[in-house]
Amino acid sequence: MNKQLKFLSIVMLFVALVMTTVNTVSASATDYQIERVDVDGTNAWNIGSGAVDSIEFERGETISVEVWVRALTNDANDLKVSAEINGYEYDDIEDVTKPFDIEGADTVKRKVLTLKIPEDIGFDNENSDSFTLRVRASTKNDDDEANVDLVLSKQRDSLNLIDVIFNPSLSVEAGKTLFSSVRLENLGAKKQEDIKVTMSIPELGLSTRTYIDELVSAEDDNNDDEETSASTEQLFLKMPENVKSGVYELVIDVDYNRGHDSFSKSYNLNVRGQEVSPEQEAEAVISIDTTSQNIEKGEGAVYKLSFANLGSKAQTYSVGVTGTGSWGTARVDPSSILVLPNGAGEMYVFVSANENADLGTHFFTVTINAGDQAIKQINLKAEVTGASAQPSDYSNIRKGLEIGFLVLLIILVILGLVLAGKKLGGNGKEEYGEPGTNEKSYY
């Protein structure tokens, strides 16, 4: 009996050792590894040697992290690469790729991630100058890591816009006054004096400004009686009585360091102005192929406008775009078109998202003018994404063009009906030109 128990004990011990070995191999063996990490084009980490050097960075900037991952003995499937800065207590500074595969052993793939550095990083932190960039390649079963030392570079001159309070809000009526108060903080190592703050609506030619006398450095230990942050006196702009309804770009400009440094921030201001009469709109049929599109950062999209002139005179149409200044740019091609009576035409609005545009939904407004009179406004939407367009997007573009063609065809049918109605209204008689000629006059 003792021999049997001893034998069973030996067997169980052997099984336990085998399972431990299998688990150890399974946990340590991966099909991939991080080969190299670059930060803003500087090599910061290599396989074998580890961290090459510490990397300096500044508050408010966006840094690029390039990661090379190599497949080892097999394909590497469902991989993700992430980059994260540890040590900032208020939020996560992180970017993560979509899942991807590496096909074939010894194949290397490069992934690029971006990290937005907060303006207030380094404050209320015992180790405010030092941070760790953690780069991780992982699947659901295992991972590989690389760590890079980051050093915060202190700037002599640096201001940050904390908040802007608008009264009544970012929506105002024609003839009313918009008030605002701007709060700034000094993040640099140097005291700032005579800080100029300007609020303007460039499209309406409106501007006003005020000054903050001084802001001391937040890193100065002897500033108990002085302010590191402050709000401006009230800024105000009165909207013109005849302003057209629409979304206008409102800009806050801050100039400091004796005018050698500056920055701006834009907001969308909704103005409720003059309304267009039904009679003015009735002379034109205006349509757009889509009111919402997905736009990748740094890329653009096209919105197509179709016009039909149902009036008795030729009309020049132009288009204005407002509300894109804080996240992108816009242009119209052609800048204007002349549409003959009972004729049709097209214009294209090209909208691009900035490389640093915030992800998510952005609204903007297209205003259509007949001559110098605004006759229609269309509110549009752009979904800014960070991912590249998939091949299926091309089918969506084709579908949009097909819809635009159908809309134009409907407009032409309407024009045909209008012409037929006019002829019937004239008792079926045709008017001819001067006697002795065979030319017909058409209206």
Features:
3 domains; single chain; Immunoglobulin-like; 5-stranded antiparallel beta sheet; flat; 443 residues; disordered C terminus; mainly beta
Describe the structure.
- Strands 4, 6, 7, 8, 10 and 11 form a six-stranded mixed beta sheet that branches. Strands 3-2-1-5-9 form a five-stranded antiparallel beta sheet, with no helix packed on it.
- Mean pLDDT is about 80; it is low at about 20-30, about 390-395 and about 430-443.
- The longest helix has about 35 residues, at about 390-425.
- The chain has helices at about 1-30, 280, 390-425; strands at about 30-40, 40-45, 50, 55, 60-70, 75-85, 95, 100, 110-115, 130-140, 145-150, 160-165, 170-175, 175-185, 190-200, 205-215, 230, 235-240, 245-255, 260-270, 285-290, 290-295, 300-310, 315-320, 330-335, 335-340, 345-355, 360-370, 375-385.
- The chain has three helices and 29 strands.
- It has three domains: about 30-150, Immunoglobulins (Immunoglobulin-like, Sandwich); about 160-270, Immunoglobulins (Immunoglobulin-like, Sandwich); about 280-425, Sandwich (Immunoglobulin-like), CATH 2.60.40.10.
- A hairpin with a 4-residue loop joins strand 10 (about 130-140) and strand 11.
- It is about 15% helix and about 50% strand.
- The radius of gyration is 32 Å and the shape is flat.
